[in-house]
Amino acid sequence: NLYLLGYDSDGKLSVLNRGIKENLKTYLSEYKILTDGVNINDGFIINIGIEFEIITFNNYNKSEVVTNCIQELKDYFDINNWTFNDTINISELELIVANVEGVSSVPMLKIVNKCGGQYSPNSYNIEAATKDKIVYPSLDPSIFEIKFPDADIKGRVK
Predict the structure, then answer these.
(1) What is the pLDDT of residues 2-28, one digit of tens each?
(2) CA separation for the pair 126, 122 (Å, rounded)
(3) What's the distance, CA 30 to chain centroid?
(4) How does strand 103-113 pair with strand 44-56?
(5) How far is 87 from 7, CA to CA, in rounded Å?
(6) Contact at 8 Å (CB) between 102 and 56?
(7) How big is the CA angle at 107 (ends 109 and 105), to the nearest 5 degrees?
(8) What is the pLDDT of residues 102-121, one digit of tens each?
(9) What are phi and psi of 157, to 5 degrees?
(10) Cα separation of 122 and 116, whole Å?
(11) The whole model's pTM is what?
């Protein structure tokens, strides 16, 4: 089985159209053994968002610190760094945010599922998939994506 996803014109993950799959099937047929079969399937996109709270040190600009935290999370979730079935380590995310200059502590960081509308239709129960602060993907080949980082990563100072 071969699971595929592509990028749309905005660089977001998308399902490949039938023509691309047929072209790939034709290309692969020249290199496979006659008795081999290749099933080309769509991968699953799980769109997520992040909500977090921080406490800042007194002498720092709170909005600037939150902006820097959001930028660090955007960099971490750059889709070019992710592959099928990668897990999300919430402790690692908390550490990334905590290491931003001006952050005193991270009392809350939560992953939420975004589905429907402009997002993937795949609904995913993040709480049920989280064990020991690790968010596991489904058994099917799936990938986590923050589709709209500017809107889907929300931080606030407590």
Answers:
(1) 899 999 998 899 999 999 999 998 898
(2) 12
(3) 34
(4) antiparallel
(5) 21
(6) yes
(7) 110
(8) 999 999 999 999 999 999 99
(9) -95, 130
(10) 8
(11) 0.88
